[in-house]
């Protein structure tokens, strides 16, 4: 073969090898399921866990190309870093929060501060100490105000954990076994539980992945298996559940989170309490409600939303949280016909003390059908936490409308329909919703029969106050909760004692 031909063949082979390399990477691998020191995948990763004071680090590869969503994910007890070059994870290091990078050389700026300007360092430390003491005093003051204020003295704002049933899970989730962060289980137990679960049946599918009913030591649990494209939602829910105290009757109970290997691929699991009645969306399809059930469902949802929205101060406190994707599919119905809010993959957190708004890094957006006008018009103040809370209130009004449609009054009830079913297609686009909600400023039609019931006649006004175009004019979750509690009290009074005065 002539030299020029041989050179051309070499270039072709080199191009092919580069194309293959661009698609498949060789990665260092020391995970338990790796038969060799290397593995082949689309993205290399390094993960680290801290369990019972012991730190373990593993290396491996993802079978799907997740790099665009694989930002450095580091918490106090768990962390993941990724890279996209062959064997790039061989020397890749990851440090958990609070963990010092041993062996790192001090930076030049630190050396200058330590050697040449000790006085400046001392002044900075004194200033930081004063600032810390001032913020601590502010926290204590706000905490006293929180529990003295008549509007925030509700018992469901207290942090007593609520268990479900007499079970092995209850024993694990008691106060003696928590991490103190609200996860309910230490990380070692979380991983142990995840690897002992048997998946029984798929009970739901969506863009997020799948939900399975699983069995752990004879008890049902729900296993949400995230798709690769929704990996950031798993990261976000895991982060929130493991750093925030979220135990509440009306928030879906968290059990464990784990990155596990099944069928030669990495799966992201979120394990929660199982509720056989399913989502509120499914429940309303097949169930006609009476007035008492209607108010019970509505009140329990708003109780969960109040718990999310309020910031609780103190060592056992929590930041304020806005859900951002509240809808009937993300609300589960418990066996006692109370509801609990699920899916915190889009949640936003805010702490008044640090004035830090944590919006996460999830590229996913909320459900278009439930988007508030300011979201559809892209005029929402993304730097203001109150803006996100007001979008939850808009969505809650739509969920309340879904519930009232399925409530029988004088023997009359309507079939289930989603909000704006008569105005937009079954899978509306962003522009479809913007036209109806922002330009035409339409809201769902409230059933007329509600006005003939002495208790339910207050609900149309409540919904109206959730649907103002101006976010500032909408009710707060706490105000809605108190209104619904008053309606529930009126329900058990003799009819002649019902007040016609608005509960708002």
From TrEMBL:
Signal sequence coordinates: 1-21
Residue numbers binding ATP: 224
A molecular function (GO) term: metal ion binding
Membrane-topology descriptor: Single-pass type I membrane protein
Compartments where located: Membrane
Domain GS per the UniProt entry, residue ranges: 167-196
Short name of one Pfam family: TGF_beta_GS
GO cellular component, one term: BMP receptor complex
Transmembrane domains' residue ranges: 111-134
Main localization category: membrane
GO biological-process terms attached to the record: angiogenesis; cell differentiation; heart development; tissue development; transforming growth factor beta receptor signaling pathway
Keywords linked to the UniProt accession: ATP-binding, Glycoprotein, Kinase, Magnesium, Manganese, Membrane, Metal-binding, Nucleotide-binding, Receptor, Serine/threonine-protein kinase, Signal, Transferase, Transmembrane, Transmembrane helix
InterPro entries: GS_dom (IPR003605), Kinase-like_dom_sf (IPR011009), Prot_kinase_dom (IPR000719), Protein_kinase_ATP_BS (IPR017441), Ser-Thr/Tyr_kinase_cat_dom (IPR001245), Ser/Thr_kinase_AS (IPR008271), Snake_toxin-like_sf (IPR045860), TGFB_receptor (IPR000333)
Cofactors demanded by this protein: Mg(2+); Mn(2+)
Keyword Kinase: yes
Catalytic activity entry: L-threonyl-[receptor-protein] + ATP = O-phospho-L-threonyl-[receptor-protein] + ADP + H(+); L-seryl-[receptor-protein] + ATP = O-phospho-L-seryl-[receptor-protein] + ADP + H(+)
Domain Protein kinase: 197-491
E.C. numbers: 2.7.11.30
Gene3D superfamilies reported for this sequence: CD59, Phosphorylase Kinase, domain 1, Transferase(Phosphotransferase) domain 1
Family: Belongs to the protein kinase superfamily. TKL Ser/Thr protein kinase family. TGFB receptor subfamily.
Protein name from the UniProt record: receptor protein serine/threonine kinase
